[in-house]
Amino acid sequence: MAHHRISVTVNGSVESVDVPSNMTLLTMLREKLGLTGTKNGCTAGECGACTVFLNDEPVNSCLVLAVECDGAEVRTVESLARKGKLDPVQQSVIDHNAVQCGFCTPGVLISARALLDRNPDPSEEEIRDALVGNLCRCTGYVRILDAVKDAAQVGAASETGGSR
Amino acid sequence: MREAHPGLPDFDYVRPASLEEASRFLAENPQSARPFMGGTDTFVRLRDGFWKETRYLVDVKNLDGRAEITFDPRNGLTVGAAVNMNQVVADPQVRAHYPLLAQAAHRVASYQLRTRATLIGNLCNASPAGDTLGACLLFGGILRVHGVEGFRDQPLAGFFQGPGRTALQPGDIATSIRFPLPVPGSVGHYEKLGRNVLSDLAIVGVTALGHPDSSTASGHRFHLALASVGPVPVILRDLLTQAPLTPEALDEAAGRAMEACHPIDDVRGSARYRKFMVRNLSRRALNRVWEGLQSGHCCE
Fold first, then answer.
1. What DSSP string runs through chain A?
2. Which class would CATH give A88-157?
């Protein structure tokens, strides 16, 4: 099977990575770059645990080939906190106890951050719509919705300019 | 037993430099090479053990700058093959002139999946459950296809030949789809039944499109496209033309839709359940379109 040498910017660092054709972005992040915050859930684009930013848009990293990311910019959950300060969405999820096992949380945080970057003042329906691809099997969704609502209300996106 | 996290099988990733090169490669390797766009269906099928003969995945999404949506007031809308579903949903021209298309695209899976999923990919995948097939058919979509002989136009009518089967031949790559201008005053609506309210595959999908027509007794003309109730989308054209529109007439048209489809039992629903749901969702969709026609607003 063919291997490819790609150059990809991950969380601000330019990485040169050797990847086989069939390696997903998810596997590259976890196994080549040691970024295990991004989780492997369903490998079918349904659970959203593997959600990351690819060129500023959220994607299921289990459904993207690493080789397709040559020249791209990727941001994972590890990029959200800046200089020891949590992203407002992260802080709000903690404040609302919106985490139980935590497996879905990295994907939820990326989807929520993506929503607030494109729409700093979403309605509840818009929040639900943005998080429809992130399944949680522990807490239920009410606390997660409340956390995102609060993060929006504190003007998270405008204060920080998002996490970009 | 199926692995909890199956990896992708071995294949070589191929990125051709041009459409010509891509078509030639695909035509020379008809069994072992497969084109892909966003990959949202392709990778899942590969992981699930389908397509065991695939040796080459040919990335056709970045050829010839096909990531644009353009609208021409005379010729209609053209959506490039690399345009993702979220771009279709958000595009001002789509929302202004083809809101049904934006509504259907919005019902595909989740936001992050729609970042990768494409309208052209949804069509070429030819799943009977595809959310956008009905809207594309009712708007009279015409695919632009590049094959080994060059470009040709491929109307969507007759394009779908069975689950996962289309009129495309080895070497063919759909590069864009064009939709003629809708009939003035057209109103559309998509009703989808999934196992949850949002994001799931359609157990039944009903797309309805209606428009004023002074030549009919009702003053209108309605069309339906039914998803997930046959090997290809079921189309009912020219409904509700014979008599003035009444709630009873809409009920009767919904009953005709139920009679016209022949679904199967599968993991997502029984055939009997699907038929009843076709009637109910068709009634709902036709009523929404009628309301929109009366108010002069496109419904979404």
1. --EEEEEEEETTEEEEEEEETT-BHHHIIIIIS--TTS--S-SSSSS-TTEEEETTEEEEGGGSBGGGGTT-EEE-GGGTSBTTB--HHHHHHHHTT--SS-SSHHHHHHHHHHHHHH-SS--HHHHHHHTTT---SSS-SHHHHHHHHHHHHTTHHHHHTTT-
2. mainly alpha
Q: In chain A, which segments carry CATH 1.10.150.120?
A: 88-157
CATH superfamily of A3-79: Beta-grasp domain (3.10.20.30)
Count A/B contacts: CB-CB distance under 8 Å. Answer: 87
Contact flag A22-B59 (C-beta cutoff 8 Å): no
Q: Which two tokens stand for residue B133?
A: 């097939």
CATH architecture of the domain covering B187-295: 2-Layer Sandwich (3.30)
Question: Measured between alpha carbons, how far is B271 from B277 in angstroms, rounded to an integer?
Answer: 10
**What does the alpha-carbon distance between residue B118 and residue B127 come to, in Å, rounded to a whole number?**
14
Compute the distance between CA of residue B58 and CA of residue B37 in angstroms, rounded to an integer: 9
Q: At what angle do helices A142-153 and A105-118 cross, to 10 degrees?
A: 40
Q: How far is B12 from chain A (nearest CA, A)?
A: 5
Instruction: Say how far apart CA A122 and CA B113 lie, in whole Å.
Output: 20
> What are the start and end residues of each CATH 3.10.20.30 domain in chain A?
3-79
* Interchain CB contact of B45 with A (< 8 Å): no
CA distance B17 to chain A (A): 14
Reported pTM: 0.94
Residue B22 phi, psi (nearest 5): -65, -45
Contact B119, B177 (CB under 8 A): yes
- At residue B77, the 3 state secondary structure works out as strand
What are the residue boundaries of the structural domains of chain B, listed by start? Answer: 12-57, 69-179, 187-295
CATH of domain B69-179: 3.30.465.10
pLDDT in tens, B245-282: 999 999 999 999 999 999 999 988 999 999 999 999 99
Convert the pLDDT of each residue in B2-51 to its tens digit: 555 678 999 999 999 999 999 999 999 999 999 999 999 999 999 999 99
CB contact at 8 A, A136 and A144: yes
Report residue A68 as tokens: 């397709």
C-alpha A75/C-alpha A63 separation (Å) is 16
Q: Which one of A30, A60, A73, A113 would you mutate to disrupt binding with B, by most B Cβ within 10 Å of its Cβ?
A: A60
ipTM of the complex: 0.94
